[in-house]
Amino acid sequence: METPRPARPKAATGRPHCLPPVLLLLLTVPVACGDTGDGAAAGAPGTLDGPDVIVNAVTEDVFTAGSVVGDRWDTFGRVASVQFDARSNLHIFDSQADHILVVGPDGSLIRTVGGEGDGPGELGDATRPIVARDGSYTVIGSSRIDFFGPDGGYVRRITLDPMTTGIVIATMALPDGRLVTSRILRFDQDDDPEEGGWPIHLFPLDGSAPELLYTAWKLPEDDDEPRVSGSAESMRMTMAAGRALEPRLDYDVLTDGRLALIDSIGYRVKLIAPDGSVTGTIGRPIAPLPVDEEIMEAERERYREQRADFLARMRGALDAGRFSMQVEREGAEGLTFAEEVPVLWSLKVDWEDRIWLGRRDPTGAGGGPIDIVTPGGDYIGTLAPEGLRTPSAFGPDGLMAYIESDELDVQTVRVVRLVALEPEG
Fold it and tell me: What is the CATH number of the domain that holds 166?
């Protein structure tokens, strides 16, 4: 799921850190709060410059996995990610059970990959598996990268030294296998010059140093308030509330290896080639909203709702890693705010290379309309806020997977097929 951000290490910089690696990993997860844009435009209907053309999604249910019964294969611990391969198999990563469940197109279990432990073929150190279209895996951990074949068999391992290479946090790869990451946590003690944006790196799979691909834009740091006070040595850490309604960095990979990327306050999508050049932009004349007191209060309320859950996850991770530290986070009254609400909230690319762009709603939250566009600048239409949502994963032939939780926090994975997008009326 993106805005007040928890304190985080600088991506790909040399700022010294004295905090446990498990805590640093959590600190990179944004706390999602935010969305806008009223869709007003004066161009011709059916174009990027025109008004919203609402489309209705026609879908059909495929299957749902997930059970509260303890003796079934789909009794999940924590579903951290889902991904499809080209055969329409769904790969469900359960980070609590340290394994990947491979589910066929009919919803039946094909195989289980990995398991608890740190040996070859085990996923005890895994933070994220990346599934290639042929069903092979690149499994990223804090101190290693493991490779598995399409049959789930172990292939090889690259060992990483977090103190020198840092911890690579990546959720996707280029078609040639290189990882794409905007999060490399550094632990060295040299202070590098402050970078003026979000560096995005390509991480080769031969263990060599990452290569800078592109530096995305970000708002200047808010220097009036420290992000973190305390340290591991003092056994206490207090995080500042941070600045809300900042532009989000989000990106996904197109089939030709380019990145589609958002990093702006306005409505702007950049297309980044594998050599780092900007090959095109996509935009709509939808202006950001000014931040007023109503928007600020809505953001404070979202922060209050998420603060307790965030601290619980932080403390749980520290306990699991046997780190004894008291963690606190400043209350909502400590939030500062950007002057405008960024238009875009999220970006995801489906298997047809259509770009799904989530817009912010009038309060700054992430449930606004979703525009569907192509890399060539064609406008397909807009899904209304009450309509179909962007899935957790896209697959071939219109497949879409959603990670969902009920009122008891029991997780299920629901798979549907997008049959058509029909203009409203």
Answer: 2.120.10.30
